[in-house]
Amino acid sequence: MNRNLRNRVMAGLLLTAALLLSVGIFVIRGARQFVSSSTWVEHTHDVITALEHVYATVKDVEADQRGFLLTGRVELEQEYLANLPAARTAAANVARLVADNPEQAARATQLQDLVEKRLQASLETYTTYKTSGFDQARSMVAAGAGIDLMGRIRELHKTMAAQERDLLSRRVTLSETNARTLELSTVAGLGVGLILFWLVARRLLVEVRERRRAEALTAGANAELTKSVHELALREDHTRQLSRYAGMLQSCRSVGEAIDVSRQAIDRLLPDCGSAVYLIRASQDLAESIGTWGRPAASTAALFPPQDCWALRRGQPFESEDVGHGVRCAHVSAIDDASAWSICIPLVAHGEILGLANFSCGRAPAASQRDVMVAAVEQLSLALSNLRLQDSLRTQSIRDPLTGLYNRRYLEESLTRELARCDRVGKALSVLMIDLDHFKRFNDTHGHDGGDALLTHAGRLLQAHCRAEDIACRYGGEEFTMILPEVDAERARARAEQIRGAVETLDVYHRREKLGAVTASIGVATFPESSREAAELLRRADAALYNAKQQGRNRIVSD
Ligand SMILES: Nc1nc2c(ncn2[C@@H]2O[C@H](COP(=O)(O)OP(=O)(O)OP(=O)(O)O)[C@@H](O)[C@H]2O)c(=O)[nH]1
């Protein structure tokens, strides 16, 4: 709760408390006033009753006396004598009750006086009756002194009673007014108090609601933050793994190695997805799978024309939200009609599309995982491109560009290696030194290009006559060498004969003009008979070739 609001709530509570306190005090005071006014009303009633009692008692005294005088009954006499002090007491009681009211007090004194006089007059009559008899007593009554006194008592009684009734009326009104005021102020005070309390409570409820909302927002923000931190940690881990992957890829020496490294790295980075990597063949007609791993949620063909893939067609990633029902590449299909997410990402390096990578998962992965896919494919593209470049450079360094055969440097490296291997396994190795006969004439007749065309055809012919383990090389100019591992002298001569015969049948055209008949002379040397040394073996084969030339060409001479 902020400070301002806390102050306002405190002020509201204090005000409510003060108001309720005031209402309480007011109610107590009002109640006291009400009790007081009620007491006064009661008092007035008492006064009126006492006045009535005085008048009634005096009347009783008068009646009893008259009854006694007329009948002489003893019980009336006793009643009369008993009522005399009662009348005095009643008059004294009135005087006591109205002592607080000077006006009425004066009247009460007067009333007491009159009562006393009336009682004295009555007693005189009684005494006369007792001493002088009825007639004397009757004469005294007839004189009218008692009647006169009684009239004055009645008048005074009336005045006092009227005064008391007036007081009673005013006191009742005051009491009612007090009661109403008390009621109204209690209701108003409680009402205002309740309103104030409601306002404060409402403000507090709003504050509690706002606090709860703020807490919920804070909790949400915390959850977001935790998620972000988690994602950040995940991304960091991905970056670290990708960096390690990139480093490993750079050290790969073959596509196979690169695929093995990718299998390990991508399996760890994308444990819930399946992956497949394709390379487009040199002929550009087919994309061929070179590695699959993980747990694919969709199947993808091992071999397919590049146009079957949207990513290859468009040169950018293509995503299929639902392989079973949405738009998808033709080479991707659902497994058992299960829904699956799939993406094809082209392997692009230096502006060239090398192939593609396909990833499939049960459901669309998080953005961070897609980033991993794209980054991994980028690294793999670069690695494959570098390997291809290395391969091309290596090929250039060991191949003769005109004939496509291995060059002399590669020949010398290979011969040494193959000789050692054949020596190890106790096998023979033969070398054929092949030279086209009168090659100069082709150059002279058809130009250097014509000579080149013939060299190219000769190269293809030799390549066609190679087994997997044979190595065909251009030794220099129009001279070729074939290394035949595990081939003895006799079989080498037979192979040489095949080649010589094939050269004879060569039909080479240059600029639509047929080149003349082509023949070749071949010298054969065999390990270990001719030599155990590579250089010596070559020299012996070359010497045999020289002999073949000397003997008339288009023939074979073995060392
Ligand atoms: N077109 C072309 N000619 C080449 C190439 N290298 C060497 N030559 C030529 O090949 C010819 C070799 O001629 P020679 O050594 O006299 O041998 P030849 O004419 O084949 O005669 P013999 O070997 O004795 O049968 C030369 O004229 C070279 O200029 C090449 O790469 N292309």
TrEMBL record:
EC numbers for this chain: 2.7.7.65
Cofactor(s) demanded: Mg(2+)
Xref: PROSITE patterns: GGDEF
GO cellular component terms, semicolon-separated: plasma membrane
Pfam family, one: GGDEF
Domain (GGDEF): residue spans on this chain: 427-559
Catalysed reactions, semicolon-separated: 2 GTP = 3',3'-c-di-GMP + 2 diphosphate
Keyword 4Fe-4S: no
Record Gene3D superfamilies: 3.30.450.40, 3.30.70.270
Keywords assigned: Nucleotidyltransferase, Transferase
Family annotation (SMART domains): GGDEF
PANTHER family documented for this protein: DIGUANYLATE CYCLASE DGCM-RELATED (PTHR45138:SF9), REGULATORY COMPONENTS OF SENSORY TRANSDUCTION SYSTEM (PTHR45138)
Full protein name: diguanylate cyclase
Originating species: Tahibacter soli
Native organism taxonomy: Bacteria, Pseudomonadati, Pseudomonadota, Gammaproteobacteria, Lysobacterales
